[in-house]
Specification:
The complex is a heterodimer.
Chain A (H helix, E strand, L loop, with lengths): L1 H21 L1 H10 L6 H30 L12 H24 L3 H6 L2 H20 L8 H18 L3 H6 L1 H28 L11 H12 L3 H11 L3 H31 L6 H33 L9 H18 L4 H19 L2 H31 L8 H27 L8 H9 L5 H9 L8 H30 L11 H20 L5 H20 L2 H4 L3 H19 L1 H10 L3 H7 L6 H12 L12 H18 L18 H39 L9 H26 L2 H17 L8 H23 L1 H8 L2 H20 L1 H11 L4 H16 L4 H6 L3 H11 L3 H17 L2 H11 L2 H5 L6 H11 L6 H10 L1
Helix pairs in contact in A: 1-4, 1-6, 3-6, 4-6, 4-16, 6-16, 6-20, 7-14, 7-15, 7-16, 7-19, 9-10, 9-12, 9-17, 10-12, 10-19, 11-12, 11-20, 12-13, 12-15, 13-14, 13-15, 14-15, 14-16, 17-18, 17-20, 19-20, 21-22, 24-28, 24-34, 25-26, 25-29, 28-31, 28-34, 29-31, 29-32, 30-31, 30-38, 30-39, 30-40, ...
Chain B lengths: L3 H4 L2 H6 L4 H14 L18 H5 L10 H8 L9 H11 L5 H12 L9 H12 L5 H15 L9 H10 L12
The chains are: A mainly alpha, B mainly alpha.
């Protein structure tokens, strides 16, 4: 692969260049001062030492100079305050360098797939270190253990723990613990003794003054698999989940072993091997238990606290993420405080709290937590690797001994492999899914050492451990070898061995359900057999969790919903979001060209099983798919999408961000812009499609006019559109009205249209290929106009398909409300109360009547809907029978009411009122229509209904 | 296991792919459930049934939503009264050596509450309600069910046939592989 090589070289030069550019930043200004060197880094370092002296010299003589030169006028217009900003400045620059380096590495797709990022970062570190060394003759930066253990490591571990797939982790807990404890012990002892043997045999140079204890100590710190390195490499390799979780879990859990061994040996070394008594060994074992179990407990305690706190953050959403970070970090620090295993503590805090926190905090907070954690972890990882590289350049810190280095390399590799094979052999007698040979190879090969080992070795006391310098050198080589060589080759290896890769597929609803059901079944069978197996304990735990923990740690509104339901919602949300993300594409392809089948296939998200099946299914059932027959999942998703869309589209128009508040998160300008763009896009498309389909629509329109649902509609096109829009509005009145005022009606219409378009497009693809497509594309346009007819159509489906809309709406409420909540605190409470299952009954109580009304096309509805906008919402929503659905509308009105002066509504309402009476003869009362169209859009038949509606009328 | 020969004939043992050891463990477990009913000598295939009440009333099982269903599916009479054969069948289905299709078939049967060889909506609703302990509203249940059907119903007949079910389950590679019990 010559190309990657070239590329890498090019990249390196690029990076180096950038670094050169970056670093002089402070220096250049400096040089103006004349006192600073050209290389900032070197400089900054130099400063630490030189600063006092130089500064003092500078100032005193400088002061005199000043006095002499500009007598009396002691005030400098521009002052050089480097020492003031030095520390944060350097940190920031480092972060910048690291981030830019990351960007550069990812310029070339092909390159990054071959070379792991960690390798490149280490190389970059080497280059940087070289530069600094040359510039300064001295290495100023290196991976400080304190910095590493207090800041860099926790960010990575926190991220890993919090997002650790809990079930997978616990499913493989046995294996993980075995590898972590037994494996690490084995590695460390064997490596230590073997090295000692090598030393005795004079393979290792005599300069290396070390005895058995030193080697054991070294073995302990070098034998632990490093979580940072494993994460960095394995994340890119994408081996299957089980394999990953075993290696990664091991790397996390073995921290306890490493910590204890390290401490025990250090104390032994300090005391001197001769003074070690047998009691001390037992103390070591006890210490291991305390460190590991204590660390875990600390983590769990903090997890409970975290869950408990987030239960009450409803009113202060903005600091929810902070709690997550703080408490997880506190778990780490606390464990460190008691010299327990901090990594274990943090990991378990993350694992334990994740479920409850995720359920408690808002969607936005979730996103924030996720992104912040990932950002921090990613940058910490980058810095760790860069610093590893930089540290390696510093010759003064290490001393080379070929014998030691090569022995260590060979030993750790051999013992790792032997250990893995041996343990796997034992484990496989107990595992349900045995680990096969390939897995073992990958596991042995994936035993990467990393920064933890390096930091530990640097921490060694040179006085006590005479061979520290040799150990440092060896550790660096080992780390580099494992991270770079093994990291580089593990990918081809995995490919070559055909290790089953992980699929990014998310579980389908089916899997969620069946997995749970299987658990129950297995537990039952185990119980019948009188076995107390894993399932038994899991079942017990779930009972406990359900009966006590959830009640304690989850908000009332949350814990009533079952996990299954949560999962379902998550899947829905994911689908909806993915559709939105791809919105542009979907629309273009779906509307302007053929229906969405092809376009859908192109989405990554749709490659999952569900959709694959679905697509197959749709292919099979093209003919069968009568409107009533198949409530297609696509359609459902569409509904959801529509709802999400509806929420998203409308939000930007509101003016709720008029005030700045630290506690509210205003809708980001960017976000709004995105939406604006999106809407504009839609509009544009609508327009273009309109032009082509204009004629057809005219027909429909004329038909509509005849029905005379709204007298105003019959005016010119534009007015008519407005009117039609207004008609729909009643449901969502406030929003629209604002929009109308703020911008011109056209846009609003487009928004409205957009939903319709979406709905239409998805359903269409299935039923008929080309004609449907045409219809679909036309339908968006038509939809606004044709809505009145549509009013009727949704009702019939409701009977049959009804369910999909509700689900959509519920989910939508989940997504959308969250955003809204931040804007309006008041609305939150109402929302949550509504969203919780208990609330629905009341709605239902209202519902029958209303639904009945709604079903009756003409007169009745006006009456129900006239009273007040909110009531109309209720009624329409109730018709849907869905609590969730009614939530959504409900909330909006409220907010609107709060936000806008009510009089805005009034005019609209008044204008609207007249139409309804008029419409009595005509089936579709406009206002409810809109809502319903949103909600009911998904039902399978909808495409047809929409398109058909006009003609029927 | 000295007395196992006296309990079972060699043929009986061959009929099951479980080892003698496991076989005897299961037998004693079976017998422990109802010592008064189950004889120690099984060489002449006594017609003994363990009534469902005995299994269903086990304290460990009281929370398990599927206890009755499991008993029904694996019992020959379909009412949860298990013979020793049924009992052993159950474990052989769940053993690691059982072929996937067999596991899928029994899993399917467990879901198929009304024994019509299809998982239809009502079956799904039942499953869901069992799994969620009736905490979902009707609407929610209905929605989830529809989603499930949409995902897995390949022939769009509104219910899941065994083929649908197998297809769906085989798509998730680790799915059935965990449907084991190790004794």
């Amino acid at each position: 692969m010559p190309k990657p090589g070239l590329l890498s070289a090019a990249l390196l030069f690029g990076v180096a260049a950038i670094v050169l550019v970056l670093f002089p930043l402070p220096a250049s200004t400096d040089s103006g001062d004349g006192t600073r060197g050209p290389v900032a880094l070197a400089h900054s370092a130099a400063e630490e030492r030189a600063a006092p002296g130089v500064a003092a010299e500078d100032e005193e003589p400088g002061g005199q100079h000043q006095q002499q030169q500009q007598h009396g006028g002691g005030y400098k217009v521009v002052q050089w305050e480097w020492s003031y900003v030095q520390t944060p400045y350097i940190i920031a620059i480092w972060l910048l360098v690291a981030s830019v380096a990351k960007i550069l590495f990812h310029f070339s797709q092909r390159f990054t797939t071959v070379v792991p990022e960690s390798c490149m970062l280490i190389l970059l570190g080497l280059v940087l270190g070289g530069i600094v060394l040359i510039a300064n003759k001295k290495q100023l930066y290196q991976l400080e253990p304190a910095l590493f253990f207090l800041f860099l490591l926790p960010t990575i571990v926190g991220d890993a723990g919090y997002f650790m797939p809990a079930r997978l982790f616990f499913d493989n807990l046995g294996a993980i613990l075995t590898y972590a404890v037994v494996g690490t012990l084995w590695n460390s002892f064997c490596t230590g003794f073997s090295l000692y043997a090598a030393k005795v045999l004079n393979v290792i140079d005599e300069k290396v003054q070390a005895d058995l204890m030193d080697f054991l100590l070294f073995g302990a710190l070098i034998s632990a698999v490093d979580p940072v390195a494993v994460l960095a490499v394995f994340e890119e390799v994408h081996v299957n989940d089980t394999l990953f979780i075993i290696v990664f879990g091991e790397s996390l859990v073995n921290d306890a072993v490493t910590v204890v061994l390290y401490k025990v040996y250090i104390s032994f070394v300090e005391v001197g091997p001769k003074n070690v008594q047998t009691v001390d060994y037992f103390k070591g074992v006890a210490s291991f238990l305390i460190v590991s179990i204590g660390g875990t407990l600390v983590g769990l305690v903090f997890a409970v606290i975290l869950g408990f706190i987030t239960r009450f953050t409803k009113k202060v959403r903005i600091i929810e993420p902070l709690f997550v970070f703080l408490l997880v970090y506190l778990a780490y620090l606390t464990a460190e405080l008691f010299s327990l295993s901090a990594i274990l503590s943090m990991t378990f805090c993350g694992i334990g709290a994740n479920k409850y926190v995720e359920a408690n905090i808002s969607q936005k907070s979730r996103t924030t937590v996720k992104y912040t954690m990932k950002t921090l972890a990613s940058i910490a990882e980058t810095i760790i690797f860069i610093f590893l590289g930089i540290s390696a350049v510093d010759k003064s810190k290490w001393a080379w001994d070929t014998g030691l280095v090569s022995c260590t390399l060979v030993f750790i590799f051999i013992f790792r492999a032997v250990g893995v094979v041996g343990q796997t052999w034992v484990l496989n007698r107990f595992r349900l899914v045995p680990l096969d040979k390939i897995d073992q190879v990958v596991m042995s090969y994936g035993g990467l050492r990393g920064a933890v080992a390096f930091a530990l070795v640097v921490l060694l006391d040179g006085e006590q451990v005479k061979a520290k310098d040799y150990f440092v050198a060896t550790t660096i080589v080992v780390v580099f070898f494992t991270v770079m060589f093994q990291g580089l080759t593990i990918k081809p290896l995995v490919k070559w061995l055909k290790v089953p890769r992980s699929t990014s597929r998310k579980p389908t609803i089916n899997e969620e359900i069946h997995e749970r059901a299987f658990d129950h079944i297995l537990t039952a069978v185990e119980d019948i057999a009188g076995l107390q197996g894993y399932h038994h304990w899991r079942d017990k735990w779930e009972q406990f969790d359900k009966n006590y923990l959830s009640k304690l740690l989850l908000r009332k509104s949350v814990y009533r919903k079952s996990e299954l339901w949560e999962a379902y919602q998550k899947i829905n949300i994911r689908d909806a979001i993915s559709v939105i993300d791809q919105g542009g594409n979907v629309l273009t392809s779906a509307r302007l060209s053929l229906p969405s089948m092809a376009s859908r296939a192109s989405f990554p998200e749709f490659t999952n099983v569900t959709n694959y099946l679905r697509e197959n299914g749709s292919g099979v059932c093209l003919d069968l798919q009568v409107i009533d027959n198949v409530p297609g999942a696509k359609v459902e998703e569409d509904t959801e999408t529509h709802h999400v869309l509806a929420g998203n589209l409308y939000k930007p128009r509101r003016r709720y961000q008029s005030h700045y508040s630290r506690h509210f998160m205003p809708l980001g300008e960017k976000e709004r812009q995105d939406r604006e763009v999106f809407q504009r896009n839609m509009k544009y498309r609508m327009e273009s499609s309109k032009s082509t389909r204009h004629k057809r629509h005219k027909k429909e329109r004329s038909i509509k006019k005849r029905h005379g649902s709204d007298p105003k509609e019959e005016s010119t096109e534009k007015p008519r559109r407005n009117v039609s829009w207004h008609d729909k509005e009643p449901v969502l009145v406030p929003v629209d009205s604002e929009d109308d005022k703020a911008e011109h009606s056209e846009k609003d219409e487009d928004e409205g249209i957009t939903f319709v378009a979406r709905k239409v497009e998805t359903p269409k693809p299935r039923p008929k290929s080309v004609p449907a497509a045409v219809e679909a594309s036309s339908s968006p346009l038509a939809s606004p106009l044709s809505r009145p007819p549509s009013v009727d159509t949704p009702l019939p489906w409701k009977g049959g398909v009804g369910s999909p809309p509700p689900c959509v709406s519920v989910e939508a409420t989940k997504i959308i409300p969250v955003d809204l909540q931040q804007a309006w605190n008041q609305s939150i409470s109402s929302l949550e109360s509504i969203s919780s299952p208990p609330a629905p009954p009341s709605a239902d109580a209202v519902h029958p009547r209303i639904s009945a009304l709604s079903r009756i096309p003409g007169a009745p509805r006006p009456a129900s809907y006239t009273p007040s906008s909110s009531s109309s919402f209720f009624s329409t929503s109730n018709t849907q029978l869905v609590q969730g659905s009614f939530l959504f509308p409900e909330k909006i009105p409220k907010e609107e009411e709060e936000d806008e002066s009510s009089h805005e509504l009034q005019p609209l309402m008044s204008t609207l009122k007249p139409p309804p009476p008029a419409t009595t003869s005509a089936p579709p009362p406009p206002p409810p229509v809109f809502l319903r169209s949103l909600v009911s859009a998904p039902p399978p038949g909808n495409t047809e209904p929409w398109s058909r509606g006009p003609t029927q009328l | 296991m000295g007395n196992k020969q006296t309990i079972f004939t060699a043929q009986q043992l061959d009929a099951y792919q479980v080892s003698d050891h496991v076989y005897s463990i299961l037998f004693y477990r079976y017998r422990d459930l109802a010592p008064q009913l189950v004889p120690l000598d099984y060489t002449n295939n006594p017609d003994v049934k363990l009534p469902y009440e005995l299994i269903g009333s086990m304290p460990e099982l009281k929370d398990n939503p599927f206890r009755q269903r499991i008993a029904e599916v694996f019992s020959e009479d379909g009412e949860g009264n298990m013979t020793l054969n049924d009992f052993l069948d159950m474990f052989s289905v769940l053993s690691e050596m059982a072929p996937r299709d067999l596991k899928a078939y029994y899993a399917f049967k467990i879901y198929d509450f009304n024994n019509d060889d299809f998982i239809c909506k009502s079956d799904l609703e039942k499953t869901l309600n069992k799994l969620t302990r009736n905490e979902l509203t009707e609407e929610e249940v209905r929605m989830v069910c529809e989603k499930v059907l949409d995902e897995a119903d390949l022939d769009n007949d509104g219910r899941l046939s065994l083929d649908d079910f197998q297809h769906m389950i085989l798509r998730a590679p680790e799915f059935l592989s965990t449907f084991h019990i190790r004794i």
